[in-house]
Amino acid sequence: MQKATDLTTSEFAEQLAFPDSARPVVRATFVSTIDGAATVDGRSGVLGGDGDRHLFLLMRKMSDAVVVGARTALIENYKAPADDDATVLVLASRSLDIPVDYLPVTHPRVLIATCTSAPSDLRRRLTDAGATLVDCGDIDLDPRRLIDELGTRGLRRIDLEGGPRLLASFAAAGAVDELILTTSPTLGLGDAPRIAHGASLPLPDQDLPLPDRLPYPMTLVRQFGDDDGYLYSLWSRRARAD
């Protein structure tokens, strides 16, 4: 297994480059404890180290769009894109319960992805403040419609950062192409959610061979470690047999 600390930034970026594709590629970037907890005390940021933060920043620089649940963005104190950053930040929110004084809301490279059933008064409050709203579903946010919307804007390298319910909804829609998982060298305990929590997938016929009997089979592409005990794994969705 390669050590992340042995690679230069450019080598690391080359190893983790998005695949060439004419269609948008969704790559989820998440961190969890050894026992699968996505958060400790309600936050994922406390699980990261210097290497993990470097990886997250690298993935953002390599992406055209970063998609994150609005609630997660508020809890983790996401900032608006920097002036020298061409990446678009997409805040996903079905409820539109987002404070208008949250600075990223009105930034020109921030989109709020929502659905047509979102409360009209909250929609008006945000648009009056200068926010850009994009409807990507009727009753709920449809991951496929969001991906198509980003694709029409030329945003094809999509970094999905959370939270767990958003990842679960994308996976349930079959919309997660890759996953970069940082395993933090700690146990989490408690009742924290997993990195994908909420929507579920039907269990395939268990008489099928592996990997077809798994709910969402993936293949390990690359794996790195570092001196702090963190493990970084790149997974790619595995096609089922015809």
In words, what does this structure look like?
Helix 3 links the parallel strand 3 and strand 4 (88-92). With 242 residues, the protein is of the alpha/beta class. It has 6 helices and 10 strands. The longest helix has 13 residues, at 50-62. The protein starts with a strand and ends in a 5-residue tail after the last strand. Strands 1-9-10-8-2-7-3-4-5-6 form a 10-stranded mixed sheet, sandwiched between helices. It is globular.
Total DSSP helices = 6
Average pLDDT, rounded to a whole number, is 93
DSSP strand content: 15-25%
What multimeric state do the chains show? single chain
Which runs of at least 5 residues are low in confidence (pLDDT < 50)?
A: none
Total beta strand runs: 10
Outline: globular
Order of the strands making up the biggest sheet: 1-9-10-8-2-7-3-4-5-6
Largest sheet: 10 strands, mixed
Q: What is the radius of gyration computed over CA atoms, rounded to a whole number of angstroms? A: 18 Å
Order of helices and strands: EHEHEHEEHEHEHEEE
Structural class by secondary-structure content: alpha/beta
* Intertermini distance: 33 Å
- Determine the fraction of residues in helical runs and give it as a percent range: 10-25%
List keywords for this structure.
242 residues, 22% helix, globular, alpha/beta, ten-stranded mixed β-sheet, 6 helices
Short synopsis of the structure:
The chain has 242 residues and is an alpha/beta fold. The chain has helices spanning 9-15, 50-62, 70-75, 120-128, 143-152, 164-172; strands at residues 2-3, 25-33, 65-69, 88-92, 110-114, 133-135, 157-162, 178-184, 218-225, 231-237.
